[in-house]
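Structure, all two chains, one model.
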Amino acid sequence: MMIYPMFKPKQITMKKKNILLIIWILLLVLTAVEYTFSEVFRYSKIAFFGIMLASFIKYIGVAFQFLELKNAHPFWKSLSVIIVLLFIIVITILYV
Amino acid sequence: MDHKNFYYPPGGILIWIIIALELITFMGGLVAFAVYRNNNIALVQESQHHLSALIGTINTAILITGGYFMAVGIKKIKIGHTDDAAKMILYAIITGLMFLALKGYEYYDKIIDGIGMSTNTFFSFYWLITGFHFIHVTVAILILSALYIGIRRNKYSKDDFFDVETGGAFWHLCDLIWILVFPIFYLL
């Protein structure tokens, strides 16, 4: 029974580090996807929606995982998501 | 510290007020640009050809990598691995300097081509918004440098890392702003 608590913090740290690593790789992949969409479907609606979706996921990934917004009060989570959603809606109205 | 408490989000409430205000300010600038673009699509698309989407993409990857190092650094200091935390923050500083160097090259390239703030409204927005972001990254590097020195001098530990968390939040703010600026100017 005494052994388990000694290993627990390390296990948690490894898990958190792995989550950050996965998010980092995901963010890099999404950045590459954005660039590809821009080059292949330049100025098309497909490019617009693909790039905006990728940007939204990247924003959420950085805010909730890197900035640890996932641990914050619901107000701060809601505020961050509402601000970016409003921005994306306005940009979509103006661009499409 | 209980981050679930309204007054104690990661990094503290003051930095979150700054984050919210900064995001709204940059978004306002980008929406103003989008309104301008809506009425001048041909000119904007012609001007965009002077920007390198590849350089923008590489810079985005660099900044995101810096964000990853900073996030790992905060995890490390929370469990008392201060040496590792300092190392991660140093890596984040290096990525920040790489971002500034590449952005500086991009600016230099524009200046050599005779493209300045007064070239047209597209480039007025471009210089203004990316320039403000450039200043933010510069300030973030200075903050991280101070934190790095602080950790090396044992000022921060697993029991006292609030400043590190706050500095990290400012660093991630630069990530968040760039994630929105990058597609608007370089890709769409």
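Chain B touches chain A through 47 residues (CB under 8 Å).
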